[in-house]
Each structure stands twice: as structure tokens, then as C-alpha cells.
Design brief:
This protein is mainly alpha-helical. It has 22 helices and no strands. Helix 4 runs antiparallel to helix 5, helix 8 packs parallel to helix 11 and helix 19 crosses helix 22. It starts with 5 loop residues before the first helix and ends with a helix.
Length: 340
């Protein structure tokens, strides 16, 4: 199709509002399918495809509804989702005022399949550092959470791992830029609720914990985390080994480390009350053994051991904690970790 100059032809059909709905839908589907190939991504972008796909979203925004063009919009957003895995395409979205269009689209009554693709595009766009300040200024966090909340709680068509992961990943990216605006727009409440949900994939857990680890670097964001019961939940999850991937475990430890940093006695007391210090120490011992026995997991294990040690350091000023860790041969284990 690319070699036969089919991509510009497809984009012409898609951009022609006088074409039939079915013709435009099929053109959008073809562009989506073609965008999977890396060479086609470049060709679509060079042919003005990003702007044309955003133009479909602009049509819906101007009409105030997605009903008329929902099939075209869904496939156009799917194509954008694929295309925006590349930095160049994410830049075009920003420079063509696409972020504002996407933010406006969030305010409409979108079908679940449309919202899923829209969330995917926003996730990709938020990974570009240059996009984040604009997205924050547009109130993307609040608009995402509002769009998601309009569906009934527990709705199987919207409460999917794909959507949860897209939202949490977007919040994680944006919280790297700003740790004030996301909480103001409801990010902390959403993340604290989501992380405790059952049957989430490891990908969702890693992204959600990552967003919380970033936000808890700001002292004012730690109290809501404690009030939502996240600290004992994390300790229990780590103790029971419900979290399997290294990324999720590191992010969980980062939350615990951040929340107990700076002499935060209240959070440290919560952690100690649920034996979080012993769970943390057990994790250090496990990672030490893994570092010695499995070279492939050494870097990941070192990361977990490092964050666990920093969390333990925050708690060990408590005399009871120091005594209990020493009773578990703490000095020997920590010395061995240092030598390793």
C-alpha cells in the first residue's frame, strides 16, 4: 500500500467529510492497520496523517457528540495510539494543537471503545516530557478521571486492565512533572483506591505504584496515602508475595521509603505496627540471596535491596525496630549486602 502511494489516498478519503461514513471508517481502519509497520508510521506522519486523524477528533468536539462518527473516531484514535509510540508523532500532536483537541474530546460522552483508544493516546503523549506541562495546564488529570467516573462502578466494559494501566501510566508521567496539580485533580484518591483492587495485572500494579512513588516524594502527599490504608496494604502484599515483578516491588518499596522519610514518625509507626520493618528486612535477605545466585536478576535485585534498605533505615531509629532486626542477625545480613 505504501509503495503504491495508497497512504495519501486513504488519508484523502478519511479527511473528506462528504465521503460516506462507511468509506471513512474503512479508510481509518486501513490507516490503523498500516501504522503497525515502522516504515508506514513515517509515511503516514509525512503525509499529514497525524493532523488528519486529529481532525476526526476535532469534528466530534465541534459537533459536541461522538455519536455520528463513533466508528470513524474509534479507528482514528486506534491509529493515533499506534503512531504515538514514536517521539516524532508525539511532537506533531503537540505542535498541531492536538493535546487541546484530545482534552476537549474527554469531555464528551464517549463509548467505552472510544475512551479506551483515547486513554491510550494520552498515555503515549504523556511519556514525552515536552507534552507534560501542556497536558497539566489543560487539566488532563481531572478530565481523565471524570470521563472514567461517568461509567457505573464495576462496569466490565470500562474497568479493564488496559484502561487502568493507561490511566496510571499517564498519572505517573505527569506526576514526574508536577506533584501538586495531579493530587488537586483527584489523582491520589484514584491511585490509592486502584492499588488495593483485586485481580489487577502486574502492569497495572507497577504503573499505579510508580505514580504513587512519584507523588509521595512530596511530603504533603503522604498523609492521604496513609489515610487510605495503602501502607499496611503494601506490607501485606509484599509479605504474601502477591506482587511478582521487580518493577512493581521496587515501586512499592519506594512508596514505603518515601512515606517514612524525613523523620515521619506517624507513617513509620503505621509501618512498624504491621511489622513492615520485618517484611522489609526479609526482602533484603531474599534479594541478597538472589544477587548471589542469579546474575540475570542481579540489577533488579540490587534495586529492590537498595530501596528496602533505605526504608529500613527510616524505621530503625526506633529502638524496638533496631532490637528486633538485630535479633534476626541484622548486622551480618546488612554487612553482607554492603560487601556484595
Amino acid at each position: 500500500i505504501r509503495n503504491a502511494d495508497g497512504i495519501p489516498a486513504l488519508l484523502t478519503v478519511l479527511s473528506n467529510v462528504k465521503s460516506t461514513i462507511k468509506s471513512r471508517e474503512n479508510a481509518a481502519a486501513a490507516v490503523r492497520n498500516c501504522s503497525i509497520m515502522d516504515q508506514n508510521k513515517i509515511a503516514i506522519r509525512n503525509a499529514g496523517g497525524i493532523e488528519i486523524l486529529l481532525g476526526v477528533a476535532q469534528e466530534a468536539v465541534e459537533a459536541g457528540t461522538t455519536n455520528e462518527i463513533a466508528p470513524i473516531l474509534e479507528k482514528s484514535l486506534a491509529a493515533l495510539w499506534i503512531l504515538t509510540v514514536t517521539p516524532d508523532s508525539r511532537q506533531v500532536v503537540r505542535t498541531s494543537n492536538g493535546l487541546k483537541v484530545l482534552a476537549s474530546l474527554l469531555a464528551l460522552d464517549n463509548a467505552p471503545v472510544v475512551l479506551e483508544k483515547l486513554l491510550g493516546v494520552l498515555r503515549n503523549c504523556s511519556s514525552e516530557k515536552e507534552n507534560r506541562s501542556t497536558m497539566l495546564q489543560l487539566g488532563i488529570v481531572g478530565k481523565i478521571l471524570y470521563a472514567f467516573s461517568r461509567f457505573p462502578p464495576g462496569s466490565s466494559v470500562i474497568n479493564t486492565d488496559v484502561n487502568f494501566e493507561s490511566i496510571s501510566a499517564t498519572l505517573w508521567s505527569l506526576s514526574r512533572e508536577d506533584k501538586v496539580i495531579p493530587p488537586q485533580e483527584g489523582a491520589l484518591k484514584y491511585l490509592c483506591t486502584t492499588i488495593k483492587m483485586k485481580s489487577l495485572s502486574e502492569g497495572v500494579l507497577e504503573q499505579t505504584a510508580g505514580a504513587l512513588s512519584s507523588l509521595t516524594m512530596r511530603e504533603e502527599n503522604r498523609l492521604p496515602v496513609r489515610e487510605h490504608g495503602v501502607l499496611p496494604f503494601l506490607v501485606d502484599a509484599l509479605r504474601a508475595k502477591r506482587w511478582r515483578t521487580g518493577g512493581a516491588i521496587i515501586n512499592a518499596m519506594l512508596i514505603l521509603r518515601n512515606c517514612t522519610a524525613g523523620g515521619d514518625v506517624a507513617n513509620a509507626d503505621v509501618l512498624i505496627a504491621c511489622n513492615g520493618h520485618l517484611t522489609t528486612f526479609a526482602l533484603i535477605k531474599e534479594m541478597l540471596q538472589t544477587m548471589r545466585s542469579d546474575p540475570k536478576l542481579r540489577e533488579e535485585s540490587e534495586g529492590i535491596a537498595r530501596e528496602s534498605s533505605l526504608c529500613l533505615k527510616n524505621c530503625i531509629v526506633n529502638r524496638t525496630v533496631a532490637t528486633e532486626i538485630e535479633e534476626h542477625d541484622g548486622s551480618t545480613v546488612l554487612r553482607a549486602l554492603l560487601e556484595e
